[in-house]
Specification:
The chain has a single domain, classed as Ribonuclease H-like superfamily/Ribonuclease H (Nucleotidyltransferase, domain 5, 2-Layer Sandwich), CATH 3.30.420.10. It is built from 10 helices and 5 strands. It has helices spanning 2-14, 17-27, 91-97, 101-105, 110-121, 131-146, 157-164, 175-181, 192-212, 218-234, and strands spanning 42-50, 60-69, 72-82, 126-128, 154-156. A 5-stranded mixed sheet has the order 3-2-1-4-5, with helices on both faces. A hairpin with a 2-residue loop joins β2 and β3. α1 packs across α6 (131-146), α2 runs parallel beside α5 (110-121) and α5 (110-121) crosses α6.
């Protein structure tokens, strides 16, 4: 507990005054207390690329995000940033996501990239496929570089889609499998922005299916997700 507090204080001390104001401004944005309707509000679909798959040791390299506004993908409302790395990830990792040594070491300073992401996000719900990974990497980075405990509303399409399509739940588990089933193309797999875009398209499919079941807001969508998580754990 003391170590975490000291880490938080060090991170706060390392922020410039401008950065502290940006974080404060974002925190002051009012959160919407009433349930947000899925098809008449804004949400943000996010994906990340990292130096590996270890949730506690690997580093966040890039964030890609796409806004879905009133049920439609807004291509003018997107976000992408490569966080500056002290040392680039290894060759095999670079071959996977295509973010080279120069792009990593000359990227956006991590605190500035994360602050820009927060201001893009506003206080809107986050959508991802396999939330645990994206969420953990973003939360760790926020704590390390901003000294901030990022606690936000997320919805996980990896559980929402099986819940909405129980006949497919045992056959489809990965993002690629769900994309293939609904004929959603991704020509730049493992690019954070491209993966966010196709996940947003999958979310659109799910939103239409959810509406047919009278699931019209994010609270109901989260309830559906929680029920599917329970089914998956019991099964």
């Amino acid at each position: 507990m003391i170590g975490r507090l000291l880490g938080w204080l060090r991170s706060q001390h390392n922020l410039t005054q401008v950065q502290q104001h940006k974080l404060s401004d974002w925190r002051d944005i009012p959160s919407v207390t009433r349930p947000r309707a899925i098809n008449s509000s804004r949400c943000v679909v996010v994906d990340v690329e990292t130096s590996g798959l270890n949730l506690w040791e690997d580093r966040l390299i890039s964030i890609g995000a796409v806004a879905v506004v009133n049920g439609k993908i807004d291509l003018g409302d997107c976000f992408y940033s490569v966080l500056q790395q002290e040392t680039a990830s290894d060759r095999e990792n670079i071959l996977l996501h295509g973010i080279g040594v120069f792009e990593q070491t000359e990227g956006v300073p991590a605190a500035d990239a994360l602050l820009a992401f927060l201001h893009f996000l506003q206080k809107d719900p986050l959508i991802a496929f396999h939330v645990t990974f994206d969420k953990t990497m973003i939360v760790r980075a926020m704590r390390k570089y901003l000294g901030y405990s990022f606690n936000h509303l997320w919805s996980d399409m990896a559980y929402v889609m099986p819940a909405l399509n129980p006949e497919l739940a045992s056959r489809y588990r990965s993002l690629d499998e769900w994309l293939g089933h609904f004929d959603i193309r991704n020509d730049a797999r493992h690019n954070a922005l491209a993966d966010a875009l196709v996940t947003a398209q999958l979310f659109q499919v799910g939103a239409v299916q959810a509406k047919k079941r009278n699931i019209i807001d994010f609270v109901a969508l989260r309830d559906l997700e929680k029920a599917q998580r329970w089914v998956s754990e019991v099964g």
